[in-house]
Write a sequence for this structure.
């Protein structure tokens, strides 16, 4: 079947099978390979994208279900001039990524968190990111980056 | 004022930009025109005789290109093992065949039986369901101690035993150790399990095989920490393809932690099938496949005895360990419980007599190999748990007992009784620093606050040492390694002054693209932005050994330094010629070449241009061009060390343990990028906390993997860990590599598990609940059960 959706502001269409997951449509048909697949049980969060403004694990949704939706992926997160957005910049500034594989999901989840809670506490950040697994950073610098992206002073948090 | 460039600067990572914008290029992002997809039909029983694999119906399914079974690989080499261990009696280890696809028997859940290549992955998967299997299930070998009893079922019938080797180290010391333990004033004994773990880098393994009929060239894209090692093992031992006909590319790799060191059957399959099918063949592991096909880690069952004299000096250590090899020998599996474990049993202490016995056992489980730390966490956990237990039995302060037995700063180089010689260290310094950053002075106050909430607070402190910067080739060759462990670097200076460094080290999260240029920037005085690191492609980097064992900077960085020194020597000759001076008078400062004691200088770019536009050039003395290669083979391991502290709160009603504080004081030698180093420690601590509190791969008695997904295998999440206090300001530079660096990648995972478990036991015992030991993972149910037993 044919599906059409708005992805990062542009209308995109493609043929999918009924069983095609949204993440596979994004990666394989639209070649938006920034969205990653890290598990097969919807636990890891590497595939988080925004669907109509909501953070969604794109491995839990069929492409057909997203027909007509507004999708935003990590490829659509930089500023208009191509520079890193506030969240992306905070991740770089605070070394909130190492191998980079979970990073797109972390960025998308962070954007969703800060939309609903612009100044989250440490505990709120950790709770919100429970659905995003990172194996590299031990979460220290991710939590720090998220709080910094929200405009909070993180200088008192353990150095480096 | 912190430095903003060169060695010691916390420069932001350049690789982050592509990762943050979705522009990374991981193996699964690579698609080649006309590629087909492979789905592996894997055994769902742990042990069985393959009576029939009938692919006739499946072969007729839509989209199927070809179905391969073990028979297709009968004439192909098996997956090789890269390390030969010799046992106590001088006999070589048992080394059973490891076929690419199962032949005659399946030996673990996940063992690949057939491979379906089809136009789409869905078609391949559908066709795999139509393959008819007749497997006669055999008794599964799961428990290691039962496996070595006579009458046990055999994982490999042809070798007649499940014992891979029975290793003793140092065998000549055994009698003296036995005697010292017999005569000791006190002996502390501890039996413990180092739980089986799954490395779980967030990127599952992927490979894409490609083949050119025109040139007979093979290309393999793979999620590897060491593409050159794969080229060697797969090319030479499995498929018979020489290096010049085999290109292995490991592009952006989403974490490794050891499990992406090894050569896997899927890599050989995709390379083989691409030629056989005349199409690129791609395999992407699902996470479930990763759980049953990635090499697991740890899985040791150990008894350790620590002997002390009447003054509490350590006099001897004796251990007996059963180490699980799984169903086949993975690439470096035999080395992990032996040379990466036994040689570390001195820890930070002056224990004069040590004997380590290791029985490596085949079982019907996934192969076990190196996982972050590899052998060293197992050694550290035993030592630091038994020392803590000894302190409790003797009623002495555990920190004081450690300090009393530390190797002292004036004793270096220190020859341990377990072969390795530590070049340098200062364990009191890191302990002092730990006490400061962990605020141990405030512990009693925090303990009272926890008590007011009805919670038990515990403090666990431990030390660690590791041997990394792996490794001196001549030494590991004597110990059974079938490879050299040097590293190479080529530094190419372009005409306009830019530098490309081709390194055999591989970055899969460690930030080499940022940190390596800092070293060259420091040496040449030019900006980091002029320096680019190329890695992960055997067609661009001719030779290399890859990244593991915290070796990249210590070995790969040293090769880069040596090559850059050659560049400097030649560049000085060119500069001297341009300024009509002697090259002995040339000094390099801020990116310019100066004639010492004069105001004459030429810019870096003048020299590099002259090298390639040699109009005015000493052609009679030196060749044009500015490119140098160096191989570096270390003369010793490096020995990072440190002290870790963990504070937990424990709810005695539920057994739940939470990590409240965690501090790490490490001596990594000199540090190039402190931000990256801290990040490495953070990640290691989280993995160590994961091992201590929640992670564990569990098999049932039938060899079924009960923890086969993130639904059952508990990965640490953001809520499971606190902010960490880390410090690496205690520096005793490595004495034998040019940068004085030791390596930092594994420390966190080595040092943290005993801190957590020691803290849990401190919480219980100081709370009046007398418990000697709880095995990892120290889950709420285990703690609760231990409390009930102690109360009974």
């Amino acid at each position: 079947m044919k599906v059409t959706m708005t992805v990062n502001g542009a209308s995109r269409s493609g043929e999918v099978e009924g069983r095609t997951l949204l993440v596979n449509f994004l990666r394989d048909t639209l070649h938006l390979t920034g969205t990653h697949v890290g598990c097969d049980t919807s636990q890891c969060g590497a595939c988080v994208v925004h669907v109509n403004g909501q953070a969604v694990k794109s491995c839990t949704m069929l492409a057909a279900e997203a027909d007509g939706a507004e999708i935003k992926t990590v490829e659509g997160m930089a500023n208009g001039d191509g520079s890193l957005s506030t969240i992306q910049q905070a991740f770089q500034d605070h070394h909130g990524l190492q191998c980079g594989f979970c990073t797109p999901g972390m960025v998308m989840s962070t954007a969703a968190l800060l939309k609903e809670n612009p100044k989250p506490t440490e505990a709120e950040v950790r709770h919100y990111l429970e659905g995003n697994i990172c194996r590299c950073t031990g979460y220290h610098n991710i939590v720090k980056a998220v709080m910094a992206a929200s405009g909070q002073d993180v200088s008192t948090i353990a150095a480096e | 004022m912190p430095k903003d460039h060169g060695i010691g600067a916390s420069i932001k990572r350049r690789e982050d930009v592509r990762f943050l914008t979705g522009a990374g290029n991981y193996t699964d992002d690579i698609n080649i025109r006309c590629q087909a997809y492979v789905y592996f039909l894997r055994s769902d029983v742990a042990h069985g005789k393959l009576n029939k694999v009938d692919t006739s119906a499946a072969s007729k399914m839509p989209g199927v290109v070809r179905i391969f079974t073990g028979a297709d690989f009968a004439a192909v080499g098996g997956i090789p093992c890269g390390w030969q261990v010799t046992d106590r009696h001088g006999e070589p280890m048992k080394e059973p065949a490891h076929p690419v696809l199962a032949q005659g028997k399946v030996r673990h859940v996940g063992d690949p039986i057939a491979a379906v290549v089809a136009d789409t992955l869905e078609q391949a998967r559908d066709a795999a369901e139509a393959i008819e299997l007749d497997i006669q299930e055999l008794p599964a070998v799961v428990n290691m101690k039962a496996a070595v009893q006579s009458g046990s079922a055999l994982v490999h019938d042809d070798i007649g035993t499940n014992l891979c080797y029975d290793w003793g180290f140092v065998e000549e010391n055994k009698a003296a150790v036995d005697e010292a333990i017999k005569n000791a004033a006190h002996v502390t004994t501890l039996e413990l399990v180092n739980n089986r773990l799954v490395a779980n880098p967030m990127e599952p393994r992927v490979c894409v095989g490609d083949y050119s009929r025109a040139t007979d060239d093979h290309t393999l894209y793979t999620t590897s920490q060491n593409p050159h090692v794969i080229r060697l093992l797969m090319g030479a031992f499995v498929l018979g393809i020489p290096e010049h006909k085999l290109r292995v590319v490991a592009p952006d790799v989403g974490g490794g932690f050891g499990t992406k060191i090894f050569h896997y059957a899927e890599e050989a399959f995709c390379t083989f099938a691409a030629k056989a099918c005349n199409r690129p063949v791609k395999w992407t592991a699902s996470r479930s496949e990763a759980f049953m096909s990635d090499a697991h880690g740890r899985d040791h069952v150990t008894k350790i005895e620590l002997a002390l004299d009447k003054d509490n000096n350590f006099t001897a250590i004796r251990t007996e360990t059963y180490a699980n090899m799984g169903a086949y020998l993975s690439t470096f599996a035999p080395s992990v419980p032996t040379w990466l474990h036994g040689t570390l049993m001195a820890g930070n202490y002056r224990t004069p007599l040590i004997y380590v016995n290791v029985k490596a056992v085949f079982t019907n489980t996934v192969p076990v190999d190196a996982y972050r730390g590899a052998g060293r966490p197992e050694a550290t956990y035993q030592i630091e748990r038994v020392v803590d237990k000894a302190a409790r039995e003797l009623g002495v302060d555990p920190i004081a007992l450690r300090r009393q037995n530390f190797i002292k700063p004036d004793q270096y180089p220190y020859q341990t009784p377990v072969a390795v010689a530590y070049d340098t260290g200062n364990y009191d310094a890191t302990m002092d620093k730990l006490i400061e950053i962990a605020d141990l002075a405030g512990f009693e106050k925090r303990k009272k606050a926890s008590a007011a909430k009805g919670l038990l607070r515990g403090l666990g402190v431990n030390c660690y040492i590791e041997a990394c910067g792996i490794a001196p080739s001549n030494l590991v060759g004597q110990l059974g390694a079938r490879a050299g462990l040097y590293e190479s670097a080529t530094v190419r200076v372009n005409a306009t002054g830019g530098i490309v460094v081709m390194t055999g080290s591989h970055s899969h999260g460690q930030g080499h693209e940022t940190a390596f240029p800092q070293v060259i920037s420091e040496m040449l005085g030019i900006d980091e932005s002029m320096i680019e690191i190329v890695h992960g492609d055997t067609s661009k980097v001719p030779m290399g050994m890859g990244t593991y064992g915290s070796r990249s900077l210590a070995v790969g960085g040293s090769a880069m330094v040596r090559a850059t020194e050659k560049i400097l020597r030649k560049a000085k000759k060119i500069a001297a010629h341009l300024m009509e001076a002697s090259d002995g008078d040339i000094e390099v400062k801020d990116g310019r070449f100066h004639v010492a004691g004069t105001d004459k200088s030429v810019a870096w770019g003048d020299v590099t241009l002259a090298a390639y536009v040699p109009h005015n050039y000493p052609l009679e003395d030196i060749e044009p061009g500015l490119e140098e290669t160096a191989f570096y083979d270390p003369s010793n391991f490096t020995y990072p060390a440190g002290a870790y502290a963990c504070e937990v709160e424990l709810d005695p009603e539920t057994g739940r343990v939470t990590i409240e504080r965690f501090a790490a004081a490490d001596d990594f030698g000199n540090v190039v990028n402190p931000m990256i180093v801290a990040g490495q420690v953070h990640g290691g601590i989280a993995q160590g906390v994961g091992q201590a509190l929640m992670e564990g791969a569990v098999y049932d008695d039938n060899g079924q993997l009960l923890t086969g997904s993130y639904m059952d295998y508990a990965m640490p999440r953001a809520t499971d860990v606190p902010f960490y206090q880390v410090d690496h300001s205690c520096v005793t530079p490595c004495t034998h590599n040019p940068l004085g660096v030791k390596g930092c990648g594994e420390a966190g995972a080595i040092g943290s598990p005993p801190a957590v478990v020691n803290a849990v036991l401190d919480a219980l015992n100081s709370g009046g609940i007398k418990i000697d030991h709880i095995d990892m993972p120290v889950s709420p149910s285990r703690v609760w059960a231990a409390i009930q037993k102690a109360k009974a």
Remarks:
- Chain A has a mean pLDDT of 96.
- Strands of chain A lie at 2-7, 10-15, 48-51, 54-57, 70-72.
- Chain A has two domains: 2-76, 86-149.
- Chain A has five helices and five strands.
